[in-house]
User: What shape does this take?
Amino acid sequence: MAAPETPGYVVGAVTTRLTVTVPHGIVGGELVRVAAPDGSYHSIMVPAGLTAGQQFSVELLAGSNAVDIAKLKMELDAERALRRETQQEALRCRTALEEVQQKRMADHAFFRDMIKRQRRSIEHLGQQVET
Assistant: This one.
């Protein structure tokens, strides 16, 4: 009987770490069937180079029920919504900053022009006083 396939990785899923002892007659690269604490069975490939009696660690997804899955889904949806809102706020801030920078450049150009005019006026007045 084949072990039931577990779904892909689930963000926020709880995992169980098991220490597996390689059984007699099994070597690296072969499959060994292990029982998880929740009673489920998993086929695990023994890492290359290991022989009978040696140990290795494996991490398995802990058994999940419908409530756990629904909770994880809800957390993932909330995380996505928060990310969307954060990206939208960042875009608004970036747009506002660009507008402020454009206004600053326009103000800077205006003040430079005003200073030039004032200098010309002062020079003109200075010439009138001399004459």
